[in-house]
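[Discussion] Sanity-checking designs against the backbone

I'm trying to build intuition for which residues belong where. Below is a structure token string of 269 positions. I'd appreciate it if someone posts a full sequence so I can compare it with mine line by line.
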């Protein structure tokens, strides 16, 4: 059965695990509850349980698309100024080196230079949302980097190259944030972030797959684009998910407001 592809919001730092008395179970400010509930229901929402997950995070960039081929990646606590217990979280899903090498092969066949590595830890764009979605850590996960030129068309094309994995029981997930401007929070962000979110959603859900890809690749021309993303690394995982989704129907899968930001998640297929 063909899996959909997803672009999910991964929250802010360890936002879902802020209770020091129970750090291994999601407890967050009520503001984060809709997003937390969305992530917690992801696996049940799929047509069948995936055999593995290929996840691209907005927190890993390399010169070439790079696959993590480690068997048991550690965690990389790449957030700052949070309570001490959030640096002792655990999430030990196995790696998926065979999937990583298969993904590298597909990218190479499409003309992309690739690299592999086995030492880097899983950043919080991986383990924080997956710890909510997969608390038992019982599905293997391989991580794919962004390419640090952040070329939207290249990331869409990379997603297209990876699309055959969907028919092999693999869930392809882009993990980022549809709005990511840490310099503006609260009421001052609401109107502009909502305008951006509406424009982005209209582009992402365009029923014509070619028009959809073109509109999202030209994301910087949408209203309030640079207000929403002063730097676009948190948006680029969407490009991979969109490309891998191919001609599938695109829908907004999640909508919530956190810190005055309108935030969306998307599903393809």
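Best answer:
Here's mine. Compare freely.
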């Amino acid at each position: 059965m063909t899996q959909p592809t997803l672009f999910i919001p991964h929250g802010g730092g360890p936002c879902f695990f802020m209770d020091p008395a129970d750090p291994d179970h999601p407890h967050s400010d009520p503001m984060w509850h809709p997003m937390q509930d969305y992530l917690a229901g992801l696996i049940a929402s799929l047509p069948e349980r995936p055999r593995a997950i290929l996840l691209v995070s907005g927190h890993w960039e390399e010169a070439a698309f790079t696959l993590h081929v480690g068997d048991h990646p550690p965690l990389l606590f790449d957030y700052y100024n949070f309570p001490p217990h959030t640096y002792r979280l655990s999430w030990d899903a196995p790696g998926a080196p065979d999937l990583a090498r298969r993904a590298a092969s597909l990218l190479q066949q499409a003309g992309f230079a690739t690299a592999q590595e086995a030492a880097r830890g899983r950043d919080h764009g991986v383990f924080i949302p997956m710890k909510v979605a997969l608390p038992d850590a019982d599905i293997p996960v391989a991580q794919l980097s962004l390419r640090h030129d952040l070329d939207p068309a290249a990331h869409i094309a990379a997603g297209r190259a990876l699309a055959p994995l969907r028919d092999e029981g693999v869930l392809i997930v882009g993990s980022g944030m549809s709005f990511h401007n840490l310099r503006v929070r609260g009421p001052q962000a609401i109107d502009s972030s909502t305008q951006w979110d509406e424009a982005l959603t209209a582009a992402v859900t365009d029923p014509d797959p070619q028009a959809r890809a073109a509109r999202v690749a030209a994301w910087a021309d949408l209203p309030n684009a640079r207000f929403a993303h002063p730097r676009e690394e948190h948006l680029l995982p969407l490009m991979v998910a969109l490309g891998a989704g191919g001609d599938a129907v695109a829908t907004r899968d999640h909508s919530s407001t956190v810190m005055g930001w309108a935030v969306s998640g998307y599903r393809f297929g």
